[in-house]
Amino acid sequence: MTALEFSYQVGTFSKFLKPFALRLTRDGDDANDLVQDTLVKAFTNREKYSDGTNLKAWLFTIMKNTFITQYQRMVRRNTFIDTTDNLHYINSSESIQLNGAERSFMNEDISLAMRNTEEMYRIPFLMYFEGFKYHEIAEELDLPIGTVKNRIHIARKTLKSHLSMYA
Q1: Does the keyword Oxidoreductase apply (predicted)?
Q2: Are 120 and 147 in contact (CB under 8 A)?
């Protein structure tokens, strides 16, 4: 099909495009824009049209796809983004409801990690955790204060490695 024949046939079918465009857009100006975009795409992609196929259906498909693309762009553009100064409220903990399940899992993991820590490191760590001072732990366990500090440090590293999933 020559360019002149193609232009003539597109011109004859263009009168059917306006009602379809009105049905899609529900606005006269938007419908005119959609018809114009459809015709521009049809002329620029004339080589993609196969002779012998339904030109009217091809034009309607172009229009429908153009409308869908424009609608998706409009939705993305009109997506609400809160630009207020109180953005911290959106992520505040006041709006979060906790059911305790996460805490239960964490407590189980902590208990397991504590059981897997050697006793010589676990006891000074637990005493320190309960509020004892280094020198009180050293006196109670009859150890040098440097050894107490070292064992507590090793216990922390061990627990940290066992509980790395919570980092």
Answers
A1: no
A2: no
Which positions ≥6 away from 13 have C-beta within 8 Å? 55, 56, 59
State whether the Cα torsion 128-134-135-141 is positive or negative.
positive
Which CATH entry fits the domain spanning 3-77: 1.20.58.100, 2.40.50.140, 1.10.490.160, 1.10.1740.10? 1.10.1740.10
Give the separation between CA 159 and CA 156, rounded to whole angstroms: 5
Distance CA 73, CA 166 (A): 40
**123-144: pLDDT as tens digits:** 999 999 999 999 999 999 999 9
Domain 113-166 fold is Arc Repressor Mutant, subunit A (1.10.10)
pTM (whole model) above 0.90: no
Q: What distance in Å separates the CA atoms of residue 106 and residue 78, rounded to the nearest whole number?
A: 41
